Amino acid sequence: MKCDKKDLLLYAVTDRRWLNGKRLVDQVEEAIQGGVTFVQIREKDLDPEKFLEEAEELKALCEKYKVPFVINDNVEIAAEIGADGVHVGQSDMEAGDVRAKLGPDKIIGVSAQTVEQALLAEKHGADYLGVGAVFATGSKDDAKEVEHETLKAICEAVKIPVIAIGGITKENVRELAGSGICGIAVISAIFAQEDVKEASKELCERTKEMLAR
C-alpha cells in the first residue's frame, strides 16, 4: 500500500489513557466511523505481547474499513504482522534503514521539525512527514513547538505530503490554513473526547474547511 495524500486528512494516533473501560479497537472503530482516514498505534507502556495483540486487532479493523494502519517506532512488529507501515521519530532509525527492513511497498512516516530534517527524510525514502508540535501539547512530554513559518517552509521544501501534529483541536485547526499541509494528526482531540465518533466527524469537517481556504 502506498501513501495517498487524501488518506492523510485526519490521522489518529492511539493513546490508552482515555479508554475509560472501553477496548482500544472499539474506540478506534468509532473514530474511523466518524471520519478518521489513517491510524497509528502508539503505545509506549504496553508489554510486547499485549502490544502485538492490540496491533493485530487494529490491523484487522483498518483492513475492514480500508484505512492505512501504521505502527509507531516498532519496525519489528510492523514487519511481523504485515502492517501497512511504520512511523519513526528523529531519534529512531533512519528512513532508509526502515525501508531496507520493510521493503519498497510499505508506508514510512518520519517526524520532522526543521527543513533540514524534512529534506533528509525525503531523500532517505519517507512517504510522508509529521511536523510538530504546531501548538503546545500535553500528549508528548518532550514535544518542542514548531513555528508556523517553519511548517510552511517544510511544506514548500519537500514533494512528499506533510501533516501537522501536536496540540491541534477543533478550535485551533483553522489557524493552519495556507501552510501547505494535507492533513492533521491528533491524539486527545479525538480520544480524550466523550463522543469519539462525533469528535472525529467535527474535526474531519473543520480540517476539510481549513484545507479549502
Describe the structure.
The protein has 213 residues and is of the alpha/beta class. It has a single domain (5-212), classed as TIM Barrel. The protein contains 8 helices and 8 strands. It has helices spanning 24-34, 48-65, 75-81, 95-102, 115-123, 148-157, 188-191, 196-212, and strands at 10-13, 38-41, 69-72, 85-88, 107-112, 128-132, 162-165, 183-186. Strands 1-2-3-4-5-6-7-8 form an 8-stranded parallel β-barrel, surrounded by 7 helices. β2, α2 and β3 form a beta-alpha-beta unit. α1 (24-34) packs parallel to α2 (48-65) and α1 packs parallel to α8. The chain is globular, with a radius of gyration of 16 Å. The two termini are 30 Å apart. The model has no long low-confidence stretch (mean pLDDT 95). Residues 10-190 form the Thiamine phosphate synthase/TenI domain. Its cofactor is Mg(2+). Condenses 4-methyl-5-(beta-hydroxyethyl)thiazole monophosphate (THZ-P) and 2-methyl-4-amino-5-hydroxymethyl pyrimidine pyrophosphate (HMP-PP) to form thiamine monophosphate (TMP).
Strand order, largest beta sheet = 1-2-3-4-5-6-7-8
> What proportion of the residues is helical, as a percent range?
25-40%
Number of domains: 1
CATH topology: TIM Barrel
The secondary structure category is alpha/beta
Shape from CA axes?
globular
Point out poorly predicted stretches: none
Largest sheet composition: 8 strands, parallel, barrel
Question: What is the count of β-strands?
Answer: 8
Question: What is the CATH homologous superfamily assignment?
Answer: Aldolase class I
Mean pLDDT: 95
Which oligomeric form is depicted?
A: single chain
**Number of separate helices:** 8
The CATH architecture would be Alpha-Beta Barrel
Binding site for Mg(2+): 73, 92
Protein name: Thiamine-phosphate synthase
GO biological process, one term: thiamine biosynthetic process
Cofactor: Mg(2+)
